[in-house]
């Protein structure tokens, strides 16, 4: 079997970032799922302000990859609603302003048995969007990682 072949038991990790010029922080979210209704692990993080929305999307991917590796989860399929993030990952040489973060991405990617990233519609990324947007409710520079969503995320109308 090809390592990138998706099976019903394959884990996928959806990532998202929330960035607003008026906010003092950047907010990250990711959900590692086995199927649409089987969340294995999720994370939300209130993070220091990044330079741009695209930096935020990349930070969300890097954090998810790092945590998945440290939790010993076999997940090599990542999904995002950011077309620019996919372009950056596929052609890093075209993004010199992101070279430090992209070097970290290569290091993390090389630690996985396989790696793929694909674009999904925003409608399929609601859980991660919710985690990212509402992680600002965490204390400044705080992290939430668990197998169940935080109470503040379940009160938003998004099902986990």
TrEMBL record:
InterPro entries per UniProt: RNase_H-like_dom_plant, RNaseH-like_sf, RNaseH_domain, RNaseH_sf
Listed transmembrane segments: none
Listed CDD domains: RNase_H_like
Signal peptide start and end residues: none
Domain RNase H type-1: 15-134
Protein name: RNase H type-1 domain-containing protein
């Amino acid at each position: 079997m090809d390592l990138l072949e998706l099976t019903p038991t394959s884990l996928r990790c959806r990532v998202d970032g929330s960035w607003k010029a008026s906010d003092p922080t950047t907010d990250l979210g990711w959900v590692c799922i086995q199927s649409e209704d089987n969340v294995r692990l999720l994370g939300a993080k209130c993070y220091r302000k990044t330079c741009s929305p695209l930096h935020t999307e990349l930070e969300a991917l890097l954090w998810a990859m790092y945590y998945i590796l440290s939790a010993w989860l076999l997940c090599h399929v990542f999904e995002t609603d950011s077309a620019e993030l996919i372009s950056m990952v596929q052609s890093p040489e075209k993004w010199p302003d992101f070279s430090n973060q992209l070097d970290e991405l290569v290091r993390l990617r090389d630690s996985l048995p396989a790696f793929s990233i694909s674009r999904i519609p925003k409608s399929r990324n609601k859980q991660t969007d919710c985690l990212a947007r509402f992680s600002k409710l965490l204390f400044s520079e705080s992290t939430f990682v668990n197998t169940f969503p935080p109470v503040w995320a379940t009160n938003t109308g998004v099902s986990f």
